[in-house]
Every structure is written in structure tokens, then in C-alpha cells.
Design goal:
Elements lengths: L11 H6 L10 E8 L6 E2 L7 E3 L4 H10 L4 E7 L16 H12 L4 E6 L12 E3 L22 H7 L2 E3 H18 L3 E4 L6 H11 L6 E8 L6 H7 L18 H14 L3 E5 L5 H10 L4 E5 L1 H12 L5 H15 L3 E4 L2 H9 L4
Helix pairs in contact: 2-3, 3-5, 5-6, 8-9
The structure holds ligand PBG.
Length: 353
């Protein structure tokens, strides 16, 4: 045991030589919001520095990100129409499908990933289609009541029978993924947290000749307050209830591990943990559970907290962001999905500060 651990910290060169963990722009995945029917970028109030982009702006952005060395784009869409069957989600001319083509036309080398979930495409904002009767059963006095009542509270919907239907949602997710693959996506990311979403996508992709399209599974996706700014950005907040009947409980690591294992079995190519910073233990667990690449999603709330503090001069933003990314890598992540990607790639090129 060396009695002076400081020996190796004396100069920047020595520190560089013995550094255990590094982050490169290629490790970063940049999530973007693309909105149908707008002409110029719209700033997202809750996420300073991020925009809802018109389809026409996607090509340039793809090239810019590629030149910065960023590993991939992750596209989220805001359709101009929503309906109960999330029709726009698998429209061959939908917003995401067009955005994929725009990115690939301008920069064919850029890796393009997509989010596969219906919450931005349904009027109720849930991640699956609604219907059926849930347990517990409604009190007999109200059993004739409509399944979904506009403006109903969480308690009402739980007790009175609207339910996010798992198996009925799977074909929609598969169709959405196939339409993304057909438009040119390299990787599709099922994020609705329906059971067996990975298997449904793999089978759908294979059946349609997209055996080479990879799946990044949102395996350990927790029901989290940290998604708040995203729901504003993507206009995808649930109109009633919350997502706790399908996303993991923040208290449960072992249950998340079961889903990581299941997703490996069902054919996932990359496993994701989300959110990132409050879930470093889960990232480590994912690393130890599977030999697939692990992605950490540094989500909207984590981004906005740093931005808010930095705007007030309370935190040194580049330092905090690079430290956070190093922590993800140290915990075992290979890939980091982050809204800071463009800035971070620039800071990394600037060298050590
Ligand atoms: C879609 C989805 C969400 C996020 C990514 N995909 C929202 C949610 O689950 O409510 C959140 C990303 C972020 O907060 O940055 N289901």
C-alpha cells in the first residue's frame, strides 16, 4: 500500500496518466424534440437552451452533432394530431419518421435513435392505450360509469376502472418501431414500460425485414419526478393519474433487475437506466447483471436543475456536467443520454480545465 497517495496527483500529466475513467463525445446521445407544423425553433421554458425543432432544422442539427463527435441523436416527436390509437405514432409520414429521413439525408453517418412510446400521441398522455376494467373493481354504485372521465383524479381512475392495457399496446409499439426502422432509424428505444415490449419490437422488426435494427430497452425506468420538464417539452404529461402502474417504483432495485434480465432474454441490444443521477446504484447493478452496453439517461429534471443553479451563478456548469458524466461512467455506464451533449462535447474538446 503506497503511504503517499498524493504522489500521483502532483501534476496534470500524472493525473492524466492514472485516470481510471474518461468521457468522450462519442459516449453521448443527444435527445431532440421535433414538432410538426412549426417553422422556427421554439424555446422550451423548462429546459433553457433546448428547443422544439421544426423538421426543416433537423438535417443541420444532425451534421452539427456529428461534427462535434456526438455518438447519436435520440428523436422525440410532437405530432399535430393525437388520438386514442396513437395513429400518428406509426404514420409513415409522421413527425419522427420525417425527422429520421431529414437527419439521414443530411448526415448518413449520424446514428439515429428513436423513442418508442405513445404518450405524446394520445390525448390522455399515458404510455399505452386505455380501456378495460382494473382491479380493484368499482364500487357497485358507480359501476356503470364511463371508463375514463376527463379531469378525473388518480384516485378516481384507479378505483373506477380505466387501465393502461399492456398486451393491446404491444402491437402499436411494434408498428411504431417498424415505421421508424423503415424511415432509417438505426436504434429504436421502447420506453412505454409495457411488459414484453422488447420481444414485441424484436419480433415485429424481424418479421418486416429489419433484423439489423437494434433495440435500446428502457429496462430500468423508474416512476420519477425528474421527468417534469420533459413532459412540458414533449406535451406528454398524463391528463389523469400517473405512471406508477407501469414504471418501476423508486424504492425497488431488485424488481428493476428482473426487468433487466428479462430484456436481455427478449433480445435487447442496449439496456438503459433512467433517471441517472439518483440511480447510480442501479447503473452499477445493470453493469454487473448483463454484459450488454449500458446507457444512463441524464433526464430533463437533472438538466434543468443544473441550468437553474448555473443561471444564478451558484454552480460552475461545465464542471458539474463533466463530473456528473464521469460518475455515470464510473458507475458502469457506457453511453450517456444527455441534453448537455452539444455543450459537453465542446467543453471536452477544450481540454482539462
Ligand atoms: C416517454 C418518455 C419520457 C421520457 C423519455 N421517454 C417521459 C415519461 O416517461 O414520462 C423522459 C425523459 C426526460 O425526462 O428527459 N415515455
Amino acid at each position: 500500500m503506497p503511504d503517499r497517495l498524493r504522489r500521483l496527483r502532483r501534476t496534470p500529466q500524472l493525473r492524466e496518466l492514472v485516470r481510471e475513467t474518461s468521457v468522450r463525445p462519442k459516449d453521448l446521445i443527444y435527445p431532440i424534440f421535433v414538432r410538426e407544423g412549426i417553422r422556427s425553433p421554439e424555446p422550451i421554458d423548462s429546459m433553457p437552451g433546448q428547443f422544439r425543432l421544426p423538421i426543416g432544422a433537423v438535417g443541420n442539427l444532425a451534421c452539427e452533432a456529428y461534427e462535434l463527435g456526438i455518438g447519436a441523436l435520440l428523436i422525440f416527436g410532437l405530432p399535430s394530431k393525437k388520438d386514442e390509437r396513437a395513429t400518428e405514432a406509426y404514420n409513415p409520414n409522421g413527425v419522427v419518421q420525417n425527422a429520421i429521413r431529414a437527419a439521414k439525408d443530411s448526415c448518413p453517418e449520424m446514428v439515429v435513435m428513436t423513442d418508442v412510446c405513445v404518450c405524446a400521441y394520445t390525448p390522455h398522455g399515458h404510455c399505452g392505450i386505455l380501456g378495460g376494467t382494473s382491479t380493484p373493481q368499482p364500487p357497485s354504485s358507480v359501476s356503470g360509469r364511463a371508463l375514463v372521465t376527463p379531469g378525473a383524479t388518480n384516485r378516481e381512475t384507479e378505483e373506477w376502472g380505466s387501465e393502461v392495457l399492456n398486451d393491446e399496446t404491444l402491437p402499436l409499439l411494434a408498428e411504431m418501431a417498424v415505421s421508424h426502422a423503415r424511415a432509417g432509424a438505426d436504434v429504436v428505444g421502447p420506453s412505454s414500460m409495457m411488459d414484453h415490449q422488447v420481444r414485441a419490437l424484436r419480433e415485429g422488426l424481424d418479421r418486416n425485414g429489419f433484423g439489423n435494427t437494434a433495440i435500446m430497452a428502457y429496462s430500468a425506468k423508474f416512476a420519477s419526478g425528474f421527468y417534469g420538464p420533459f413532459r412540458d417539452a414533449a406535451d406528454s404529461a398524463p391528463s389523469h393519474g400517473d405512471r406508477s402502474s407501469y414504471q418501476h417504483d423508486a424504492a425497488n432495485a431488485r424488481h428493476a433487475r428482473l426487468e433487466l434480465l428479462e430484456d436481455v432474454e427478449e433480445g435487447a441490444d442496449i439496456l438503459m437506466v433512467k433517471p441517472g443521477l439518483a440511480y447510480l446504484d442501479i447503473i452499477r447493478m445493470a453493469r454487473e447483471t448483463a454484459d450488454l452496453p449500458i446507457a444512463a439517461y441524464n433526464v430533463s429534471g437533472e438538466y434543468s436543475m443544473v441550468k437553474a443553479a448555473a443561471e444564478r451563478g451558484w454552480l460552475d456548469e461545465p464542471r458539474i456536467v463533466l463530473e456528473t458524466m464521469t460518475a455515470f461512467k464510473r458507475a458502469g455506464a457506457n453511453l450517456i443520454i444527455t441534453y448537455h451533449a452539444k455543450d459537453a462535447a465542446k467543453w471536452m474538446r477544450g481540454g482539462e480545465d
